[in-house]
Amino acid sequence: MLRYSKVFSLVVFVFLFAMCNQKSKSQSDKETILKGALTITVDETVKPIVEDQIAVFEGTYYDAKITLQPKSEAEVINDLLNEKAKVVVMTRKLTPEEIGEFAKTKINPRVTPFATDAIAFISNKSNNDTLIALKTVVDFMQGKADARIKGLVFDNPNSSTVRYMKDLANVKEIPKTGVFSFKTNEEVIKFVAENDGMIGVVGVNWLSQPSPNMLDVVKKINVLSVKGLKDNQYYSPSQNDIAEMRYPLARELYIINCQGYSGLGMGFASFISGDIGQRIVLKSGLLPVRTPGRKLQIRKQIINDKE
């Protein structure tokens, strides 16, 4: 009887082993660095640039399907730590505490910088003053009333823009009065376009690449030039001022991959930081991590192509 029991156990073990190998092989067949399905959770403030990257990536690699899930920064981090998201796009690196959480599960996040973005201040078109001192906004965040600001408008209480401004003002909570929040950057732009005296705080990518339904709305707002805390000059969130590190509210963008294997997340990260991906960043108005190369053809004589 014992002999038959051992034989039965051996058969079950071999069967389970074969099934596991088949499942692993099946998973490998479904996803590689250039094919398969993947969901990327992205900080909502930089959604447009990631949408552009995905469109070109899928147009190049037809077997790849990437679904974009925009969320606030706090939600992105929670999903990443709770393993609800494997690949995310953020406006900051992981903190030592967050990296420590991944170390417990023996996962080493792959962090790839791919662009420099900026936080922009916007006002209604009726406001003739297109300049603002960063100290004025910091003071307002610290609860000091200022006649020049009727109110600050953010996209989401848990967004990266709120976190950035709270860190800058060295406050734990935003003021209870004079600060408004919605859900998306588009809602902030629409609100500022319709209300005088409000200062909107948005990702500049929403202004450099407005969606078709936002083109007319963006025309109704001013993008303010900002004087830094240690500057005497005002600079705009333009590609040139960001490149020369003069605009005081610039921030880097990262794609963070926690898949733990060579999957579509690795392929997309390589694409977005490669030549084509960096050209997309350059065209978007943001600053690429590396300037794409340009090939020049030098001719000894002029060739008339019309002949």
From TrEMBL:
Q: Key word Signal present in the record?
A: yes
UniProt signal peptide:
1-20
Domain PBP intervals: 36-272
What the entry lists under Gene3D superfamilies is as follows:
Periplasmic binding protein-like II
Entry keyword set: Signal
Q: What is this protein called?
A: Substrate-binding domain-containing protein
